[in-house]
């Protein structure tokens, strides 16, 4: 990841709608989150810069990555269910199609995709997790690094992209969504999940919410502003899966150019 600093706008403004009416919502430990009055995006401000984020995920103690190599059996079973759902959306089926697992960690979903017939790729900023994934699942390709750099250098276009619980970690949602979109084939399909701050079951007190974990989670979306973000990058949500836990689970397709 380049050591460039994500610009900390001061005063804060909303990445999704550009709105400037963003009052502080909560201060928790050393971190302050603001809320956009227009679209409801909740975001860390000042935002971590790219170097700080890279540091966060290069530290094996910080993000609990070791835990990803426990309960392998149940993780693979869950991954297979999600891959089956995505495979069903790919026209012509998964055989020989390109699958990208964004934030692949230990490579379980990547492996499940390979087993389903996809050409499977996984990418994760945690080099340690990627090393484990390569060792355990040699039938897939794994890249260590950020999605934006990968999108700049990768010539492959993906028919299916899986991006679960990653968007909330990024500092610049537009760069990230643009990278996702650019990596997809014209009829590519995206399965994305992220916490839902607008969900009726979200604990009223944010610190009581299990995913409110500053500073790892920089951005908290709800259904409207997620739809708006993706649409800015030519991705249309065409189905929302019901979620009993406060999360968004959406399927999106590339919108035609023009
Ligand atoms: Zn906004």
Low-confidence stretches: 1-7
Ligand kinds: zinc ion
Order of helices and strands: EEEHHEHEHEHEHEEHEE
Backbone structural class: alpha/beta
Q: How many distinct folded domains?
A: 1
Shape: globular
Proportion of residues in β-strands:
25-35%
CATH topology: Rossmann fold
Q: Which CATH first-tier class would you pick?
A: Alpha Beta
Structural descriptors:
258 residues; alpha/beta; Rossmann fold; seven-stranded mixed sheet; four-stranded antiparallel sheet; 7 helices
How are the SSEs placed, and which strands pair?
Elements: E1 22-28, E2 31-36, E3 42-44, H1 50-58, H2 72-89, E4 98-102, H3 108-115, E5 119-124, H4 127-136, E6 141-144, H5 147-153, E7 158-164, H6 173-182, E8 184-195, E9 219-220, H7 223-232, E10 235-241, E11 247-254
Parallel strand pairs: 4-5, 4-7, 5-6, 7-8
Antiparallel strand pairs: 1-2, 2-3, 3-9, 8-11, 10-11
Helix pairs in contact: 2-3, 5-6
Bound molecules: zinc ion (ZN).
């Amino acid at each position: 990841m380049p050591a460039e600093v994500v610009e900390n706008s001061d005063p804060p403004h909303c990445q999704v709608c550009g709105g400037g009416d963003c009052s502080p919502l909560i201060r928790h430990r050393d971190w302050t989150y603001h809320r956009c009055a227009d679209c409801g995006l909740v975001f860390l401000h000042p935002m971590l810069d790219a170097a700080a984020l890279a540091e966060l995920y290069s530290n094996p103690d910080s993000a609990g990555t070791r835990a990803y190599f426990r309960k392998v059996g149940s993780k693979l079973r869950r991954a297979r269910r999600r891959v089956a759902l995505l495979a069903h959306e790919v026209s012509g089926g998964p055989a020989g199609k390109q699958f990208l697992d964004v934030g692949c960690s230990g490579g379980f979903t990547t492996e499940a995709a390979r087993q389903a017939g996809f050409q499977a790729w996984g990418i994760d900023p945690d080099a340690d997790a990627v090393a484990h994934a390569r060792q355990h699942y040699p039938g897939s390709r794994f890249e260590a690094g950020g999605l934006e750099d990968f999108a700049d250098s990768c010539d492959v276009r993906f028919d299916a992209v899986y991006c679960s619980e990653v968007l909330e970690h990024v500092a610049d949602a537009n760069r990230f969504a643009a990278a996702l979109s650019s990596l997809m084939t014209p009829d590519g399909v995206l399965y994305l999940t992220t916490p839902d701050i607008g969900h009726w079951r979200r604990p009223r007190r944010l610190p009581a919410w299990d995913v409110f974990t500053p500073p790892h989670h920089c951005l908290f979306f709800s259904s409207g502003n997620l739809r708006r973000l993706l649409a800015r990058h030519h991705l249309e949500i065409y189905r929302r899966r019901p979620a009993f836990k406060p999360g968004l689970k959406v399927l999106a397709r590339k919108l035609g150019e023009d």
